[in-house]
Amino acid sequence: LLDAPCTGLGVYSRDPSIKGARTVADVRKLAHLQKELLLSAIDAVDDKKAGIVVYSTCSVSIEENEDVVQYALDKRNVRLVDADGLEFARPGFARCGMRRYHPTMTKTRRFYPHVHNMDGFFVAKIQKLSPRNKKRKHKTSEGG
Question: pTM (2 decimals)?
Fold first, then answer.
């Protein structure tokens, strides 16, 4: 379980002081840390024994949630699996504005204070498929 340090934007209904205390720079800084922590957690699990990492934040920010999980999907040989028992929550975003995520991002779960009468948070269940990292895609000047 990676209960990642986050902005806490999901708990501002309980603690309104959070809303004005967080900046865009805070979100970016924490998202960078979350990406590093998630890759480390994935690298630490044994792919031969289920190899499951549960990633969670108490934030409703896509920068701290879907963006971080997409980063892991792009960098490691992993897949999202159903978050069993959390079907009552809302699915994660497969797209948001101009952002497009892997279609299986809908297997992640979002909880909202105004919908679920609880703190807002995000949960993703990630399965490691092999110890190999994905190779980086290199763009050429021809756009390929």
Answer: 0.86
